[in-house]
Each structure stands twice: as C-alpha cells, then as structure tokens.
Amino acid sequence: MAAIVIKPLTPQEVEERLARDLPGWRLVDGELRRRFATHGWKGSLMVANAIGHLAEVAWHHPDLVVSYGGVEVRLSTHSPKGITARDFALAAQIDAVVLWQPARDGILEGTPEDPGAAYLKDKA
Ligand SMILES: C[C@H](O)[C@H](O)[C@H]1CNC2=NC(N)=NC(=O)C2=N1
C-alpha cells in the first residue's frame, strides 16, 4: 500500500479549503481555530471530552482552551509543521459531532429549551 503523503498547506490553500469545507473555522497564528459557545462550565467540559475522544481515536490532538462560556479548539500538525489534511479531517469530524442535532420531527427530543437544561449555544 502506498504511504499517505502529508504536507503542509500554504496559507492560501488553507484559506481556500476553509471557505469551501469549514466555514466555522479560521486560520489564526498558524492554527485552525473554532470556538463552541456553551451555557456554562459543565457544558464546556462535555464538549472538551467529546473532542478529546475524537482526538485520541484519530491520534491527532488539538489544544483546547476550556472556559466557562465555551471551548476554543486550536489545531495544527507538529510534524511536518503546519496545517495539513489531518487538521482539516479532524476539524470536520469535530463539527459533525459537536454540532449534531437530532432531527426536529424525529424520535430524539433534543436538549430542552429551559435554562436548567441549556447546553450548547451553537447548533448546526
Ligand atoms: C508526537 C506527535 O505529536 C504525535 O505522534 C502525533 C499525535 N498527535 C498529534 N497531534 C497534532 N495536533 N499534531 C500532530 O502532528 C500530532 N502527532
């Protein structure tokens, strides 16, 4: 089987792919970044844990800034240093999991609207 070649993308390539595939993410200081806003610390920790699970399964680990009101995800590749297809692949999976919502008319109810249950502020 041919080895997968991972090479850093140029800033222009990164911006093009962000606009096409990951509109919620930005290139800042050489990292792909996205913030997921929550209604509080417990929600932020749940988001952080969901991302932590994906990172460990992928064996590609973002930095996380966990705050009372949200989680900022910062993704880059250490070797080769830069932004690579690995960062885009994990970012897309993070979006898919964190922003996922049950179908409106489906059998799963979704998080109730009342303040006691409020969790994510950003939903797909
Ligand atoms: C030591 C080295 O960072 C690791 O082998 C793997 C695992 N996690 C990783 N995580 C990230 N974000 N970038 C990497 O290049 C990377 N490489």
UniProtKB/TrEMBL annotation:
Its EC number is 4.2.1.96. It is an enzyme of class 4 (lyase). Pfam families: Pterin_4a. The keyword Mitochondrion does not apply. Transmembrane segments: none annotated. It catalyses: (4aS,6R)-4a-hydroxy-L-erythro-5,6,7,8-tetrahydrobiopterin = (6R)-L-erythro-6,7-dihydrobiopterin + H2O. The keyword Lyase applies. Keywords: Lyase. One of its GO terms (molecular function) is 4-alpha-hydroxytetrahydrobiopterin dehydratase activity. GO terms for biological process: tetrahydrobiopterin biosynthetic process. It comes from the Bacteria. Belongs to the pterin-4-alpha-carbinolamine dehydratase family. This is 4a-hydroxytetrahydrobiopterin dehydratase. It comes from Chelatococcus asaccharovorans.
